[in-house]
Each structure stands twice: as structure tokens, then as C-alpha cells.
Amino acid sequence: MPSQNESVEMRFRRLAAVPLESVGGSYPFTPRGILDSVTDAVSQREMLGLLVKRDLKSKYKDSALGFLWSLARPLVQLLIYFVVLGQFLGAARGIPDFAIYIFTGLTAIGLFTEIAVGGTGSIIANAGLVKKVYVPREVFPLASVGSALFNFLVQLCILVLATFLTGHPPFHWAILYALPALAIIVVYGLAFALFFGALNVYLRDMQYLVEVFTILLFWASPVVYSWQMVRDLVQNPVIVEIYTNNPLTLAILGFQEAFWVAGADAAQPDLLLLRMFVALIVGLVVLVGCHRVFLRLQGNFAQEL
Q1: Of the ranges 2-16, 68-82, 209-223, 277-291, which one carries the lowest mean pLDDT score?
Q2: What's the rounded Cα separation, in Å, for the pair 212 and 219?
Q3: What angle do helix axes 98-120 and 247-259 make, rounded to 10 degrees?
Q4: For 64-115, what is each residue's pLDDT tens digit?
Q5: How far apart are CA 273 and CA 266, in angstroms?
Q6: N or C: which end of the chain has fewer CB within 10 A?
């Protein structure tokens, strides 16, 4: 019978003989490296699903209305903008089905805001998991995307129902604009979430900065006013082009084309669909760059937290 010290020494020898395997992602900036990093994150889809369910349950835990609260904020915003801007300030003049117009923009920009803000704070919010067990860190911003998409689908159902109630359901070919518009929002939102989520671990002010920036993006997008108003009021065509080619503006215009049937005759930018596809391609490049920054910074997440 070996003594206790000898058995401990034998265990140490066996452990020393086991080759070390890397569990963190140090991926080269090559197509193969990018594919490996994405595959590593996708392989944790069960973990991702559990994180999404946890986020959704934690938001509405012990509440009587549960997920119906996801409608409270956009509906209150809709009421305020419809009454104050639409009726009192006269913004509804010249914009048919103003309520549908407003709710379409709120639904689109609400998705982007929830992805960007939730993803920025996702690493810190999951500090306990980050410090205790290794999983690809991308799953935390991706979980924010998943919960945001769930809330978006709930609001989208309400929007579609509202179009039926107003007598203008989206039974037209332009409904296809919703697909590239949704892709633009998810791609840019995820890029924001990865980039600022990583920076937020080192500089905790990033989360507040992103919240302020999303407020600016809201007012810099045609949500409570029309794109035609900007075109008519701004005399400089260069500024109009910069404003128009803002990816968030293009995505909101795409959603309006899809669901705001009463505004089918409203002025829209030339080659809107082409602009959207260009913005989507640029967004994919930006997403790859932000992912690389995330991978470079994730190595010290546990120590910083």
C-alpha cells in the first residue's frame, strides 16, 4: 500500500503527463480562424439557449403580466409621440396612419437599442460565469440578441395586428423589405454589442455611453418624422446622403416599406433596396472587425472582473 504522500505524488505525475489543451480562443485573422471562432461559439448553442431563457425569465420574474411588459414601453412611447408630436405639434399631418408609422419605427429601433445596450453589459452581467468556467465569451452578447429578438417578435405581432385594424394589412411584395432591414439591425447591433461589450469590461463608462448614443441614433432616424421632411428641410445634398445612408435609417425605411402600407406613395430614397444590401455587406465587414477586437480583449476578462 503506497503512503498518502506517495499517492499524491503519483497523481501529480499523471497530471503532468497529460498534454495541455487550449480552451480559450486564440484565432488567427484568416478565413480559417474566423470560421473556427464562429464554430466554437455555435457549438455552445445549448448554453446560448439557456442564457436566453434565463434573461427572459429574470426580466419578468414574479410579475403578474409576465412577457406582456415587453409591450409596455413601446406602447407608452407610441401614445406619447402620437398625442404630443402627432396631434399637438401637427406631425401627423401629411403622414397617413401616423400610429402605424410611429410604431413601425419604434419596433425597429427598439430591437437595435436592446441588442446594443444589452450586449454591452452582458459580460459584466455574467461575471460569475466568466470567472468560473470557460465558454466562448461571444455567447453572452449573442444571448442578448436572442432575448431582444423574442421581444421584437412580440411587438411585431402587435404591429401586424394593428395594420389589420387600420384596414391596411401588409399583403404586398414590399413586405420582403423586412428581411434585409432585420438583417441590418441584427448585424450592426451585434457588432456594437461585441465591441462595446469587450471595452465595457475595462472601461465601465461604455455602457452609459452606448445608452446615450442610442438616444442620439433614435432622433437621427426617421421614427417620429419622415425622411421626406429631412430631404425638404436640409438644403445640402451631401448631408442628406449621409443621413440617408445611415444603416439604421435604411433599416427603418425598409420596415416602413414593409408594414406602413398607407405610406406606399410617400417619397423614399432612390435605389433603397440596393442601398440596404450595400449597408448589409459593410455591416458584415464591421462585424468581423468588432469580433476580432472582442477576441483580442477577451483573454483578460476574468482578471478584470
Answers
A1: 2-16
A2: 11
A3: 140
A4: 566 666 677 777 777 777 777 666 666 667 777 888 888 899 899 999 999 9
A5: 16
A6: N
Q: Are 213 and 137 in contact (CB under 8 A)?
A: no
Residue the block writes with cell 452578447 = 141
74-95: b (≥16 Cβ within 10 Å) or e: beebbeebbeebbeeeebbeeb
Cell output for 23: 480552451
More confident residue, 15 or 294: 294
| Contact criterion met (CB below 8 Å) for 139 and 44 | yes
For residues 189, 243, 293 and 180, what is the CA-based torsion angle, rounded to 10 degrees? 40
Q: How far is the C-alpha of 209 from the C-alpha of 214, rounded, in Å?
A: 9
3-state secondary structure the chain: CCCHHHHHHHHHHHHHHCCCCCCCCCCCCCHHHHHHHHHHHHCCHHHHHHHHHHHHHHHCCCCCCHHHHHHHHHHHHHHHHHHHHHHHCCCCCCCCCHHHHHHHHHHHHHHHHHHHHHHHCHHHHCHHHHHHCCCCCCHHHHHHHHHHHHHHHHHHHHHHHHHHHCCCCCCCHHHHHHHHHHHHHHHHHHHHHHHHHHHHHHCCCHHHHHHHHHHHHHHCCCCCCCHHHHHHHCCCHHHHHHHHCCHHHHHHHHHHHHHCHHHCCCCCCCCHHHHHHHHHHHHHHHHHHHHHHHHHHHHHHHHHC
Mean pLDDT of the chain: 81
What is the reported pTM? 0.84
Q: What is the pLDDT of residue 60?
A: 65
| Residue the block writes with cell 410611429 | 102
Cα Rg of the chain (Å, integer): 23
pLDDT tens string 147-159: 889 889 888 988 8
